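Hi F.,

I've been meaning to write this up properly since the lab meeting, where we talked about keeping a consistent format for the predictions we share between groups. The idea is simple: the sequence comes first, exactly as it goes in, then the structure tokens exactly as they come out, then a line or two of notes. No screenshots and no reformatting. I'm using this chain as the first example so we have something concrete to point to.
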Amino acid sequence: MIGLDTSVLVRHLTDDDPVQSPRAHSIFEALTPTEPGFISITALVETQWVLRRSYGYSKAQVEQAVHALLASSDLVVEAADSLRAALGLAAQTGADFADCLIQVSGARRGCSVTYTFDRRATRLAGMAEPAE
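Output, unedited:
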């Protein structure tokens, strides 16, 4: 198994660099179920952030890209079940994917509440602004 960093994921998904994108595609083409690529939860969250902020991808486009990565039999994605749950919550509520992942991760670890100063995130069940 080989690890895949955010930069490799972004080059593969955007095909935006004449030198690095073909190299990223070659890495993905060489992956197999017996010799998969590993995507950490950090790399995936960074990737979705870069796609939204730097490339102007819509939420739907980012969700589609993340779903495609999760569906690949040539990839092992850390916390895949939590990522799928966060994608579902984001689709259901319209909330930010990263906020949904924070909420899902906390809930799965038994947190009664996750405190945040992000007012948009407090719209998610289980997320709240701390008292003054």
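Notes:
The longest strand covers residues 37-39.
Strands lie at 2-3, 37-39, 75-77, 114-115, 127-128.

If this format works for you, I'll send the rest the same way.

G.
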